[in-house]
């Protein structure tokens, strides 16, 4: 386990926004803080990073994705043992068909990519996706409503989906962080927690920016240990994936999952070779050292015998004379 320490400024910001939202929503502020026990501890325990494949939602959200494209990502997901595949709602049936005999999850996007349709439409889309085999949903909030401070609308938008689906189906709330400032990111995370969502997620990958480590850290600082953070948008390398994980992400949304895992494997191979060279060098050094010691010892003993022999020879020579 590793620990994410919350700096005083972040705790102050979250506390301030929680109190403000409580007034807007006309709810007891204590209700917020009962969901955020980590604020008083000022730290969050993070799981120890494991192999990157287990974090990846292998993604194809291209509007023109064919049946063959979906079969391909499902095949790759099985081969590399990714966390899930993430597809558009109309592709869920095919993904489920390919993965139903595995432990891999099928995630469907909802209200994607704009998030500005009616809540009823999002609920219908969510229910249908679950019926088709989705076990996770990635829904986009109405960013315009959030920026307009229509917090009741945003809360209801998320909560309506939570209440419409089975509790076993996890909801990830996409914030589109590139369009939000720090206060709005905190507000969106607080509303997601209050609504009962299991995840908050950075981006659709269809806007002007993607995941940033500082946003992941802020989001994790808000939702704490009992909720998760998904980083998505522009993540194409092992290094960038690891950076997100170390800042609190437990899922990585990426269309380059295979490339990312291969980078990790190549890095592991290089590290193993370095370790092997170190061990070989150490073995050679020990062998050389042992050889030198043996040589010196042998020379010493041989010399000692010669001296003894010479002394003995000299002793008998004395009596002969």
TrEMBL record:
GO terms for biological process: carbohydrate catabolic process; deoxyribonucleotide catabolic process. Catalyzes a reversible aldol reaction between acetaldehyde and D-glyceraldehyde 3-phosphate to generate 2-deoxy-D-ribose 5-phosphate. One of its GO terms (cellular component) is cytoplasm. The lineage of its organism: Eukaryota, Metamonada, Anaeramoebidae, Anaeramoeba. Signal peptide: none annotated. InterPro entries: Aldolase_TIM, DeoC, DeoC/FbaB/LacD_aldolase, DeoC_typeI. Keywords: Cytoplasm, Lyase, Membrane, Schiff base, Transmembrane, Transmembrane helix. It holds the Pfam family DeoC. This is deoxyribose-phosphate aldolase. It comes from the Eukaryota. It catalyses: 2-deoxy-D-ribose 5-phosphate = D-glyceraldehyde 3-phosphate + acetaldehyde. The chain crosses the membrane at residues 284-303. Its EC number is 4.1.2.4. One of its GO terms (molecular function) is deoxyribose-phosphate aldolase activity. Belongs to the DeoC/FbaB aldolase family. DeoC type 1 subfamily.
